Amino acid sequence: MTDPTAITPDRRPGGRTARVRTQVLDAVRAELAENGHEGLTMEGVATRAGVHRTTVYRRWRDVGGLLVDVIEAAGEIDWRPPDTGSLRGDLTALNQEIQQSLVVQPSFAVALMAASFHSDQAARAQTRLWADRYAQCEIVVERAIARGELPARLTDARSLLIAATAPLYHQLVLLRADPDPQLPERAAEAAVLAAAAGAFSARRSACDPGAPS
After folding, report:
1. pLDDT in tens, the chain (213 residues)
2. Residues 41 and 132 in one domain
3. 2, 14, 45, 43: which is closest to 161 by C-alpha?
4. 63 and 167 fall within a common domain
């Protein structure tokens, strides 16, 4: 799954309001990636965007409002999970997108995740966005079931997707290790093998409080 906070939405036609939003959100992404949450200010965003600061305050009110709008804008992109013809291929492609978003320097994705710890508004918006993105990616598991790669109606798609993508965040965000070009495929393969063995059985998740959910 591509990191949903790491992509700039496609430009949409519109009047001055749309143009101002584009300029301001582009400025937020740049300021956040370069200076982190601590360096993100309404004045700095207004200056970079070339917009009067009263306009920024009137529409977004504070830094939390800017962060929420950046996150919501990420949900507006026209993105679809890859369809490579196999579950392993799809999960590998998703992981490659995640790795790409996390290793680019400076990484807006990493900066925004850090910022969410300082803003309750941003944290809630990011949780909603991730939930929506995981739901969107469940088709990857549905296709695998249709192809006979996984037991029909017995796989908890959300648990499988989290297991497949989590190693990327653990390695690159928590440990801050150098990117491993083999990790996207290895993590995908491990999740596929576990799923085939029944580790993400929806029936097991419902019956066993200790099972993955």
Report:
1. 666 655 444 444 458 899 999 999 999 999 999 998 889 999 999 999 999 999 999 999 999 999 999 999 998 888 999 999 999 999 999 999 999 999 998 888 888 888 988 899 999 999 999 999 999 999 999 999 999 999 877 899 999 999 999 999 999 999 999 999 999 999 999 999 999 999 998 765 444 555 444
2. no
3. 2
4. no
Question: What is the spatial distance between Cα 80 and Cα 120, in angstroms, rounded to a whole number?
Answer: 28
Q: In the chain, where does DSSP find H-type helix?
A: 16-35, 42-49, 53-60, 63-74, 87-103, 108-115, 120-147, 157-169, 183-196, 202-207
Does 212 map to a domain?
no
Residues 199 and 94 grouped into a single domain: yes
Report if residue 115 sits inside a domain: yes
Q: Are 90 and 33 within 8 A, CB to CB?
A: no
Q: Residue 196 falls within a domain, yes or no? A: yes
81-to-86, 87, 98, 209 alpha-carbon distances in Å: 12, 11, 12, 30
Asked which of 51, 74, 97 is the last residue of a domain, the reply is 74
